[in-house]
Model the fold of this input.
Amino acid sequence: MIRLQNIEKVYRTNTVETMALNSISLNVAKGEFLSIMGPSGCGKSTLLNIIGLLDAPSKGEIKIDDQKTDHMSDKQLANFRNKKLGFIFQSYHLINDLKVLDNVELPLLYRTSSGSERKKLASAALEKVGLSNRVKHFPTQLSGGQKQRVAIARAIVGNPEIILADEPTGNLDSAMGNEIMDILQYLNTTEGATIIMVTHDENMAKRTHRLVRLFDGSQVQ
Amino acid sequence: MLKNYFKIAIAVLKRRKFFTFISLFGISFTLAIIILVATFLDYVLSAGYPDTNRNRELYVSHMQLNSSKNHSQYNGGPSFYFINRYVTTLKTPEKIAIFSNSSATNSYTNNKKKVNNLRYTNDKFWDVLQFSFTAGKPYGKQQLDNAEKVAVISEETSEAYFTDDAAAVGKYIETDNVQYRIIGVVKSLPFSSNVYADMWVPYTLTKEDLKNTGLMGGYSAILLMSSKDDLDKTREEYDQMVSKVPMQDKQFDQMFTFADSYFQSFIRSMHLAEGTNSGMGIFLSFAGIIVLLFLLLPTLNLVNLNISRIIDRSSEIGVRKAFGASSKTLVYQFVIENLILTFLGGILGVVLSFVIIQVANSSNIMPNMVLSINFNVLFVTLLACVVFGLLSGVYPAWRMSRMHVVTALKAQ
Done:
């Protein structure tokens, strides 16, 4: 489903050139739950951003569903992300000015769906993560675990095939972290979502199908 | 989608209340001034008491004489001779009002000194203009032909000398050592009126030599048509008539004078016209530049405030991009948000200007002038809001939308 070939990412300033990713090749099958581990600064998030088409590689090729992504325009990339990908971030990135339901609806705003349809889908997504009783709350009124569940609902509301999670349990205690992992596992096994998760936590990684380890921008496992 | 933008726009406004106050204050103050200027211009340029037939009238109030030999040019009004000898021969107008420029005269009546603005007019003046008589009646052709020393005075003048308007009729008023018998009192005019005066008397009473054949002088005419369909026909007839007028003074070889709409006549009075060029283009360009310059300062202020909000909203920008918003969609969103802000400012501006207008009307700062905000003014306000919103919103929106998604997400 996802095919990365010789991906390189170089950050350049006037004086320094930093190789963030060095010749990464990776295949992720449909329905797979993959975790990426490595020490801080090894390029985990950079790799996830590149897979999520939020950042472009300096070299190499990415194919998602056999579609080359390197020549896509801004509009095509936005559309592709909207249909195929769902993101979960460590710091949730919820919009504090919007209520929970409005936050979850957000990806649907960039599709042609009616307001009532958006509400129906967002409510269903919140139901899946067990937060249907918090639709009218603002993110600031929720706990960390609840915020992350809202973020998961937002990621799955558009029914994307791929979910990219960047340290989704990083800001949570282990009990809350396990709850989040339960939801991700449910989405993977029951709904068939392909999930790529960046984590620092060995225990969380053990609950996935496969582990990829990075070190100084290179794949070591 | 728009509902979502609206929710966000309101939430952003609530988030940083001081910034919002500064923004709204700048916008509403600027728009209030634009509304006040628009209201004033609308009042001056729209048909109103006593000139209520403007949609079927043309105005002859300017003349330009050119000398190609000396490269000199004279601008002014037409003479009584020109209007009486040539303009009154036009067949299409139903009626033609003739009136002089107003002149300040000193009046000593009932031992009171007052400066009265006086105009000399013909009898048709009272038919063309819809004066409201509170007492008495206007003078007619016979009184004009007989040069009877009669006068119509304004209510304000009447109140200055007499107990009531009815008591004024039949009394005498002396101004510049001439005694006039008051035969009518009319409701006072706003000073912005083109026929504003305190007294109107028959033109046959003027000390000026009406037989002087000079083409330029201090008179004007209003041509009233039976229907507005006759306006173009009258203009053509007027132009043909002008082409046949012999030049009295040999030093001039070109004459420009037109039967204008009120607006054209207003612009011509600003001396922007040159020959056949009515000056409309210059006026509109000039007015546009003034409005833009006036909008520029608050616009720059709002641009600055909007840019400073980028950092606040970087996470939101990143999230929206990650979930499928293109840069163009984000520009659209931020421009809409800014338009919402400027419309809120517009509403405050309308309220503010409404209060100012009410205060100005009740305090009689502008005598006999009752300003009001009408649909024309609201349309101008709406237009100003859109221009203001776009000017101050597009650049910050473009900056926001160009923000790299990863950088935006990291900024929080």
Summary: The mean pLDDT of chain B is 88. Chain B touches chain A at residues 1, 3-4, 7-8, 11-12, 15, 315-316, 318-329, 404-406, 409, 412 (CB under 8 Å). Chain B has two domains: 2-46+282-410, 78-227. Chain B has 14 helices and 14 strands.
